[in-house]
Automatic annotation (TrEMBL):
Pfam family, one: Glyco_hydro_17
EC numbers, comma separated: 3.2.1.39
Name this protein carries in UniProt: glucan endo-1,3-beta-D-glucosidase
Residues covered by the X8 domain: 360-445
Similarity annotation: Belongs to the glycosyl hydrolase 17 family.
Cleavable signal peptide: 1-23
Statement: the UniProt record of this protein carries the keyword Electron transport: no
Gene Ontology MF terms: glucan endo-1,3-beta-D-glucosidase activity
Length: 496
């Protein structure tokens, strides 16, 4: 009995260690109903330049999945609504989908989740009977490939499946979907997956007929006389976002399926609307997303689940100008397609702001010959005199451990130091210049508005998304830290 208690305590300690190390994240959705959509390689450059570590694709676009290889960015791929019916009726179709859209890209592309459809219950209710079978077939295909621990399966649902979300403590799912919801929650619990929620305070506010103040929707402090309180639990809600997430937790709990975490797969605020959409403004969008990021990255949950962070994906990267509907529907993007930001925002807890930059950087070309990259890297770090300490193991720019990443850092450091004396950005045709800042995480490229004259910032690397091994096949910082934690666990077990 004493041994069991000590084992239990150890496991709780380890869970805490992993939770603290990983922390909450803010990712982004990438929609493609865009005129003049940039090449996939340019999109990935924008993601890396702005420290975006998690992305959700609405399909399994081959160009994007290839471009994301060796970036370390965690990827959620999507089964489109049009594919759900076929997959839900055929295990063979599901297996073929997994083989084509997941197996083919791992481990280089860090795929960690499959989102089955998009708001299936409310957008294509006729597919409800096959939704969970589709998820089961996809999961079984992952099991067959020994990928079920790495890649989770879930399905994003809108807040519309909960007819009355306030007060959160009384929220329940629409009873007409009881059978499907029950099967869905059992699947998520049995596979250790998570509930995917699309939660939009913008719609909650604009359709609320003035019931809630706009400050509540924008995460802004409320005066004491306007505090939002659940009358049953007396829990205070500082934002509509938290109330929506908590309402979903209570609805899940009503099915006796507690223990399933929630990931918000879509949220955001449009920055431009029509004449009848006065709340879709740049100021409101900037306020919402900056406050959202600050809220998510404090690593806490809503009142009913304070210790479970609310990992969240912002909707969306670019304005989807080809989408039908009102003006606001086309203007949720936080970037224009040339890589400049619609408004200033902070994607991390650091002081680095994302905005427009006139700096020029020298980086390795996408899909450059690895042998030539190796030669260029060796020259830059040797005869070229570049400071290559930041790309050594244990330093901020080591991960992802690829020739592409390391060459980019070395090329740029050489270029920034020598271009005034005639140094060029060529490196036997493997390099190119860009105005997109390639800095990411704690890795700051020389020439960035946040860089030091020594060519790098040597603060500890954050324990972020798992980076796959790259061409040079070194052990990533991530793997080293996990190994250390596991070693600590093993040592503790020996000492019991």
């Amino acid at each position: 009995m004493v041994l069991k208690k000590r084992l239990g305590s150890l496991l709780l300690l380890l869970v805490g260690m992993f939770s603290d190390a990983i922390g909450a994240f803010v990712g982004i959705n990438i929609g493609t109903d865009v005129s003049n959509l940039p090449p996939a390689s340019d999109i990935v450059a924008i993601l890396k330049a702005n420290q975006i570590t998690h992305v959700r694709l609405f399909d399994a676009d081959a160009h994007m999945l290839k471009a994301l290889a060796n970036s370390g960015i965690e990827v959620m791929v999507g089964v489109t609504n049009e594919e759900v019916l076929g997959i839900g009726e055929s295990p063979a179709t599901a297996a073929a989908w997994v083989n084509k859209n997941v197996n083919s890209y791992l481990p280089a592309t860090n795929i960690t989740a499959i989102a089955v459809g998009s708001e299936v219950l409310t957008s294509i209710p006729n597919a409800a009977p096959v939704l969970v079978p589709a998820m089961n077939y996809l999961h079984k295909a992952l099991v067959a490939s020994n990928l079920n621990f790495q890649v989770k399966v879930s399905t994003p649902q809108s807040m519309d499946v909960i007819p009355r979300p306030f007060p959160p403590s009384t929220a329940t799912f629409n009873s007409s979907w009881n059978s499907t919801i029950y099967q869905l929650l059992q699947f998520l619990k049995n596979t250790n997956s998570y509930y995917m929620l699309n939660a939009y305070p913008y719609y909650g506010y604009t359709t609320g007929n003035g019931i809630f103040p706009i400050d509540y929707a924008l995460f802004r402090p409320l005066p004491s006389v306007k505090q939002i309180v659940d009358p049953n639990t007396l829990s205070h809600y500082d934002s509509m976002f938290d109330a929506m997430v908590d309402a979903t937790y209570y609805a899940i709990d009503a099915f006796n399926a507690s223990g399933i975490p929630i990931v918000v797969t879509e949220t955001g605020w449009p920055w431009l609307g029509g004449a009848n959409e006065p709340d879709a403004t740049v100021d409101n969008a900037e306020n919402f997303n900056n406050n959202l990021i600050r809220r998510v990255l404090n690593d806490s949950g809503p009142p009913s689940q304070p210790t479970i962070p609310i990992n969240t994906y912002i909707y969306e990267l670019f304005n989807e100008d080809k989408r039908p509907g009102p003006v606001s529907e086309k203007n949720w993007g936080i970037f224009f397609t040339n890589g400049t930001s619609v408004y200033t925002f902070r994607l991390s807890t650091s002081n680095r702001l994302t905005g427009n930059s006139s700096a020029v950087f020298c980086v390795a070309k996408q899909n450059a010959d690895p042998a030539k990259l190796k030669e260029g890297l060796n020259w830059a770090c040797g005869q070229g005199g570049a400071n290559c300490t930041p790309i050594q193991q244990g330093h901020p720019c080591f991960a992802p451990d690829t020739y592409q990443n390391h060459a980019s850092y070395a090329y740029n450091d050489y270029y920034q130091k020598m271009r005034g004396a005639g140094g060029t950005c060529d490196f036997d045709g493997t390099a190119t210049t860009t105005t997109i800042d390639p800095s990411y995480g704690s890795c700051t490229f020389t020439g960035s508005s946040n860089s030091s004259t020594s060519g790098g910032i040597f603060s500890p690397v954050a324990f972020g998304p798992i980076s796959p091994q790259g061409e040079s096949a070194g052990v990533t910082f991530q793997a080293s830290k996990v190994k250390s934690l596991l070693s600590a666990a093993f040592l503790a077990l020996i000492l019991l």
